[in-house]
Structure formats: C-alpha cells, structure tokens
Automatic annotation (TrEMBL), chain A:
It comes from Szabonella alba. Belongs to the binding-protein-dependent transport system permease family. LivHM subfamily. PANTHER family: ABC TRANSPORTER PERMEASE PROTEIN, BRANCHED-CHAIN AMINO ACID TRANSPORT SYSTEM PERMEASE PROTEIN LIVH. One of its GO terms (cellular component) is plasma membrane. This is Branched-chain amino acid ABC transporter permease. The keyword rRNA-binding does not apply. The keyword Transmembrane applies. It is found in: Cell membrane.
Automatic annotation (TrEMBL), chain B:
Residues 22-270 form the ABC transporter domain. Pfam families: ABC_tran, BCA_ABC_TP_C. Signal peptide: none annotated. This is ABC transporter ATP-binding protein. Gene3D superfamilies: P-loop containing nucleotide triphosphate hydrolases (3.40.50.300). It comes from Szabonella alba. Keywords: ATP-binding, Nucleotide-binding, Transport. GO terms for cellular component: plasma membrane. One of its GO terms (molecular function) is ATP hydrolysis activity. PANTHER family: ABC TRANSPORTER ATP-BINDING PROTEIN, CONSERVED COMPONENT OF ABC TRANSPORTER FOR NATURAL AMINO ACIDS-RELATED. InterPro entries: AAA+_ATPase, ABC_AA/LPS_Transport, ABC_transporter-like_ATP-bd, BCA_ABC_TP_C, P-loop_NTPase.
Amino acid sequence: MPEQFYFALEVSLNGLMAGIMYALVALGFVLIFKASGIFNYAQGVLALFAALTLVGLQNGQIPFAHLINAVFGTSLHHFGWTLPAVVAIALTAVVMTGLAILIERYILKHLVNQEPIILFMATIGLAYFLEGLGDVMWGAEIKNLDVGLPQGISETIDEVTFNWFGYGFFIDRLDIVATLVAAALVISLMLFSQFTKYGRALRAVADDHQAALSVGISLRFIWVMVWSIAGIVALVAGIMWGSKSGVQFSLSLIALKALPVLMLGGFTSIPGAIVGGLIIGMGEKLFEFFIGPMIGGATENWFAYVLALIFLVFRPQGLFGERIIERV
Amino acid sequence: MNAPSPDGYTTADGRSIGPVLMEMKNITLRFGGVKAITDISFDIREGEIRAIIGPNGAGKSSMLNVISGFYVPQEGEVWFRGARRPAMKPFQVARQGIARTFQNIALFEGMSVLDNIMTGRLTLMKSGLMAQALWWGRAEAEETAHRAEVERIIDFLEIQHIRKTPVGRLPYGLKKRVELARALAAEPKLLLLDEPMAGMNVEEKEDMSRFILDVNDEFGTTIALIEHDMGVVMDLSDRVVVMDYGKKIGDGTPDEVRSNQAVIDAYLGVAHD
C-alpha cells in the first residue's frame, strides 16, 4: 500500500512541476488581460519567438540567413561566435522589449477604444505573423536550447527519499529550477505591482482608463510596459520549455493549454494563474496514471479542457477571478 | 462688473485674486455637424473660484473636457500660465498641473481609498522605472514623503475612517469626496470639478461646499466648477460664466449674473415668438 501511495505522490509532484510551465504561460496572459482587457492569443507564440531568438543569438546565427542566401546567392549561416547564456538572455529581453514597443506603435495604438473581439483578432494576426517571422529569421528546424540549467533526474532526491521512505522519488532537476524561477518571478511581480509607483499606475489603468488619464498616466507607456513584462515572462517560459523539449514550433500550442488554466484560476488573477496551472498539471498526470489505463489512455489531451468546462458551469469567474456582478 | 485689472481684483469678502491663470479664446467644439460650444471666451484667475453654469445640455461638461484635454476644440486657443497650449492628451494636461473630478465619478473601484489618493501623486514622483523596480533608497524615501502628504489631505477631508476600504464599497457621497482628495493630492494649479454636488442630499451638499471653500482658502487652489444648481454656485463662486445652447450668455459676479435678463430667460424659459 505505501508503495502505491508514494507512487501517487511522485506523480502529483511531477504534475505540479508540469503545472508550473502552464502557469508561466498563463501568467503572461493575465498580465495583459488585466491591464488592457485584451485576450492575447499570441502569448504562446511570444514564448516561442523568445526561445528562437535566444538560441539564435547564443549560437551566433545570422537572422534571415535563408532569405539573404536565396536572394543574393550567398551562403551565410553563422557569425562564428557563441555568446555566454547570460548575455544572450539579456539581449533577448531587450529584443522582447523592442517588440513590445513595435506592437504598441503599430497595432494597439490604432485600435484604442475598439471592441475586445477586434483586439483579440489583432492578437491572432500577431500570433501568425510572429510565427512566420520566427521561421524566416531563425529557420524552422528543431533547436537545442542549453543555457546551462541542470538537466536529468536528481540523484540526490532519489537517494535521500529512498533512505527515508524506501521509495526513490524521480524528479527532474530542470523542474525544480523552473519552480524556483517561477516563484521568484511571481513574488517580484506582486511586489512591483503593490509597492511601486509604476505598479500602482498599472493597477490604476487596469481599473479605469479614463480615471487613469485624469491623474496623468500615459496609457501608451503602461501598455508598452505590460507587453514588455509579458514578453519577458514569455522568455522565461520559453527557456524552461525549450530546455525541456527543444525549441520547436509546437511550443506555440502551449498557449492553448493555458486557456483551461485561466478558466480555472480566473483571467484577472496572478495567483490564480499559478494555482490554476498547478491544479491542471497535477490533475492531468494523476488522471492519466490512475484512470487513463481504464479508458484507453491519452487523457492528457482533453482532461484539462473537461475540467475547465466543469468549472465554467459552477464558478464561471474562476477560483480567484473577480465576481461578475451586473448592476441593474 | 468692472473689468478686472491685469493684476487681479479683490473679492467682496476681501480675498485678493491674482492674474489670469487660464484663458479660453474663441473656443468652438463640434461633434460632426453639431456645435457643442460656439465661440466662447473667458478667463480663470489665480486663487479664484470660477463657476460655469447653465441648463442641461448647455455645453458645460464639454467645456470642462476641453480644459482637461479630453476634447480638442476645432477652433480657438487655450492659454495656460501665459503660454498657448498646443493640442495635448489628457495625461499631459494632468501633468501640467490641471486635476479634475468627473460627473459620474471615475475612481479605481478595486483599490483602497489610500491607493486611489496615492495615484493622484504619480505625476509628482520622480524616481525612474529601474529604481522603482529594484526599490532603491530614493524610491522608498520618496514613497514615504508622498504618503505623509496624502495623509494630510485625508485628514483635511475627514476620511480617515475609510482609508483602507476598497472604493467600490463606499456610498456615493464619500466616493465624491475621495475623488476630490485624489485630485487635490496632485497639488494642482487648477482644480476642475464636474458637478461636485450632483445627486447629493442637502447635508452632503453643505459638506462639499464647505470643503471646496476650505480647499481654496487653505491651499490657495484655483477652482473651476460646473454646476446646474444655481443656488449652490452663487454662494460659492467669485465669478460665474453662464452657458446656454453652447453659447455664453453671461459672465460676471453672482449678483451681476443673477440680474442678467438673458440668464433669467434661459433658466425660467421665455416665450419665443
């Protein structure tokens, strides 16, 4: 019996770790949704684009190499350098901030006061544009991302738990790092939004645009700031997913897994994104291991969505979302 | 009334009013083919309580929105502190030192009273994004100083007991007062009040009148306010602009305005033949 209990515990822990990844993507969604009411379909692609750029910069790839070679008949591929991981990450963060400025300048600015559905459509367009741009800039092949994060099963945990419980827990070291990084990210975001003037301005804009204008807050500045932060959150998510399973275009599909996470946690709550991610991650794994075999497996594909549907029926605002009260 | 001299004038109750702070010159505002404001000029002087009154639909709120930058007039010039103001976004106007309240109250409902009032000081905070993000020494010291200033305003407007309450839970009258506090927190050169007494009962109106007079007296703040209730305005203001159907039909001290035939007609109605 204890054997089976420990096994369940191990599965849950691994599920929690996977949930952190979902939560990281969901976090980016929540930030933008809170500040501007835009459901940013492109958040997953932002993570992909960040990871592609990071690998490209790190390996000294020449951007648009295929295009340049095709047009000019050259055969350029690499600058011939490799950047240290820290420098490449910092440069990618700069690129994501630049991208935020461009998105504000060329998309959001022209769509002020439009219906949410129009902004949503714009982000779908942005998603496909960025996916194409990433392809043309850095090539479509699967890339290996290595920024020096520890990989593989943690032997220490395996040993220690074996000595204590007589059952060795298999936990990926990368998952542990991802958890720590996500925790640090969330804590610093919460501190920033609660205790700094820009955080206060951000909350003000999220609450009421007109009132924010009247106290001298520039909406455009706040939007650039939010998209930059979302871009950097996407970069973190991209690093974690990329280190785990390589940088490939299916990365942008995690965005779809973030949707049930948001329905669970609430679209406007940062802690909600985290808790939602954890519940989905853990629920998915437990369901797959214990119920899956009885119904033919592959439940991970749909479990999250069914759970979200059930939630929508009983608590449409999510666990942490604002109560929806329509005044009559 | 006598045209005030360039340096100002002295009010009936002995307060001295300074030179022109803001001047509107021949403002015309159209929405499509509809003229909301037609060729209106007036000025606001330092230290003054200036009222804009008129029946519903006279264009008062439009005028306030022109002053605060929410509307850009098609014709006319806005002069502020001796310089012509180029077309500006509302947040830029706010940063120039013009704070406002709204007829329908625009507060941050999810934030506490204290946080709401602190947003009023955003334009006065100087430390940059990185310092704020990393909470470097200056950012913290600055926050403390601003917090002290905000507490003074909270005391002044007698809202200590609701400091930590989320604004969404407050009754209407208190919300109006919090909105006034937020505008005051910006230490504005010009304070715009859009129907500060709309929807209030007699007692709340008296409180608000007292606060407006005290603000003007204590902080020396120049105030421009809109109101359609004649009685309140006449007791409160030094000079009054009267609007009707987008045109200016009177301008002067409350007494002068009260005896102006066009104003009486506008308010009481007149037979058109």
